[in-house]
Design brief:
The chain is α+β, with helices and mostly antiparallel strands. The chain contains 6 helices and 14 strands. The chain has helices at 23-39, 65-72, 98-101, 105-112, 116-125, 218-230, and strands spanning 4-7, 12-16, 44-49, 53-58, 88-94, 128-133, 140-143, 158-161, 165-169, 172-175, 180-182, 185-189, 210-215, 236-240. The two termini are 25 Å apart.
């Protein structure tokens, strides 16, 4: 699959591959990002992976787009590692109960023509894959939900959606790391913070990670929340690929 080079002003270059959202393609982009970072190309400041592209920020006083494209050439060839797992796997507690935690559950259930319990079963059985981070610090865009839960976005956005809210739309899942507005549907909340500005590494997740959700009741949610505040809770990472 040939790469498409898209200039982004005089300090950025996007390297795009393919169309749509695809895990194998995303894994290739993550591998290429690692190779670019390891190559330490002079003038390259930062690399940012997305669903199907890699954004490269660079210093135009030290390098040019033509020089970056030339340096990238040997790094873009497909390898046997493309499509292989690259990230960590996490288990995340989520409360799906009541208006406070799942304000849109009833609406989603009506749209999908299924019981809330069936929606929860799907959400806790799917392995959610982190394609990219964006929109807010540490916010993961995760796939892939079945068509039965590929609900369109809300017509009227909500405001003041709290951190930890689990939202779905268009077959994807996100978890809010900070309070924000949303046009997605709120079906749960986790007490586990995905972003902590005081931490040495403030962002919990990285592209290529996977996640499974497990259901907790409100009492368990509050107990974990207290442990988070006390600094005694560690997110559950069960494997590293």
């Amino acid at each position: 699959m040939a790469a498409l080079f898209l200039p982004c002003g005089d300090t950025g270059l996007t390297v795009q591959f393919g169309e749509g959202i695809d895990r194998d393609l995303n894994q290739r982009i993550i591998r290429i990002r690692a190779a670019v970072d390891e190559a330490a190309i002079p003038g390259v400041i930062e690399t940012v992976p997305t669903y199907r592209s890699l954004m490269i920020h660079y210093d135009p006083l030290r390098t040019s787009q033509a020089e970056i494209v030339e340096a990238l050439a040997p790094l873009l060839a497909p390898t046997s590692d493309d499509g292989a797992a690259t990230g960590k796997h996490w288990r995340m507690p989520v409360c799906f109960d009541g208006e406070e935690f799942a304000a849109d559950m009833a609406h989603v259930a009506e749209w999908a023509n299924m019981a809330p319990a069936a929606i929860i079963d799907i959400m806790t059985s799917v392995t959610h894959y982190v394609y990219m981070l964006g929109f807010a610090p540490g916010l993961p865009y995760m796939g892939d939900l079945p068509e039965s839960l590929a609900i369109p976005r809300r017509k009227d956005p909500r405001h003041g959606v709290p951190p930890g809210s689990v939202l779905i739309a268009t077959g994807l899942t996100v978890i809010y790391p900070v309070t924000n507005a949303t046009g997605w549907h709120i079906i749960g909340r986790t007490p586990v913070p995905l972003f902590d500005v005081t931490a040495d590494d403030p962002v919990l997740l990285t592209p290529g990670d996977t996640m499974t959700l497990y259901r907790v009741n409100e009492a368990d949610f509050r107990a974990i929340e207290e442990r988070v505040r006390a600094g005694t809770f560690e997110p559950e990472r069960i494997s590293t690929a």
